[in-house]
Backbone:
């Protein structure tokens, strides 16, 4: 009996650790193998092309890229190796041409310096998706549903220091007196509009919060007052601190959210609903794009240089 009990504990202990997941192409070939723990990528990761060749290999720690990451092309040639401290902080280690030869040391050093430049708002996006996430009034999100935060927003809107909009593209402002009436009470929930983008210049998959929607539910139809997040950061620091500020939590995306929103895959394309169960699928697709872009941009550079 004691042996059975300890065997049960061992099984439970394993389940508390990362669980290996495998996704397959319709052909039956393996597409991804990864580890999940607490709904985060945690542990080894490997992806494959639909011809069976390895596409990318690396590891995650608490949802962040960690350690050496490598990318191959469809012919099985290793093309890029990088060292990651988190999803956006990395060092370029080595790159190879499609022939298998190392790129020149001059090219590698120039590229290393270029990739270390701080991000700016560029027009060289290779990837742009926009999402809505729902922030509900659970304990982890208490800061956003406090009387203190609500009063601050109302005061700043009445004074004209924050502008509320009718829609999440921020084209149609709501008159400050009307907006103050709308936000007179704590919202039932929030919508957080995010922008996921990949820029060719710094080769990072970035996430930026661009809109915070205050949602008031009613039988006649929900009312939403949208705030442009970059404009409200300075205002949020007016709140007394008892921990991380709301501004910092928004920047670090540390509020508990539910992925149930519209995604725009690119400009002028029709939106579609993305379910909570697709959260990992969204992340995997972005990893595919990002590691594929390493190879694509490398070949583009080398072809332009005639190498």
Residues:
């Amino acid at each position: 009996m004691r042996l059975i009990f300890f065997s049960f504990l061992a099984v439970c202990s394993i389940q508390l650790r990362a669980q290996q997941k495998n996704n397959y192409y319709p052909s039956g070939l393996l597409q991804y193998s990864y580890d999940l723990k607490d709904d985060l990528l945690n542990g080894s990761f490997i992806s494959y092309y639909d011809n069976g060749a390895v596409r990318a290999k690396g590891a995650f720690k608490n949802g962040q890229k960690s350690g050496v990451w490598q990318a191959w092309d469809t012919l099985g040639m290793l093309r890029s190796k990088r060292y990651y401290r988190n999803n956006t902080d990395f060092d370029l280690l080595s790159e190879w041409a499609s022939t298998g030869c190392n790129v020149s040391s001059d090219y590698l050093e120039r590229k290393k310096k270029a990739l270390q430049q701080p991000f700016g708002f560029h027009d060289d996006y290779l990837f742009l998706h926009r999402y809505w996430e729902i922030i509900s009034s659970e304990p982890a999100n208490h800061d956003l549903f406090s009387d203190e935060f609500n009063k601050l927003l109302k005061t700043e809107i009445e004074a004209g220091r924050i502008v509320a909009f009718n829609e999440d593209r921020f084209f149609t402002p709501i008159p400050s007196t009307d907006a103050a009436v709308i936000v007179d009470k704590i919202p039932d929930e929030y919508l957080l509009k995010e922008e996921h983008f990949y820029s060719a210049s710094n080769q990072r998959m970035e996430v930026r919060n661009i809109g915070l929607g205050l949602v008031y539910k009613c039988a006649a139809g929900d009312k939403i007052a949208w705030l442009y997040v970059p404009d409200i950061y300075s205002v949020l620091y007016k709140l007394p601190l008892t921990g991380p500020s709301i501004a910092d939590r928004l920047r670090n995306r540390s509020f508990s959210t539910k992925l149930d929103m519209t995604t725009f895959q690119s400009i002028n394309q029709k939106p579609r609903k993305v379910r909570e169960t697709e959260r990992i699928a969204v992340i995997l697709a972005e990893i595919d794009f990002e590691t594929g872009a390493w190879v694509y941009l490398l070949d583009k550079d080398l072809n332009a240089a005639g190498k």
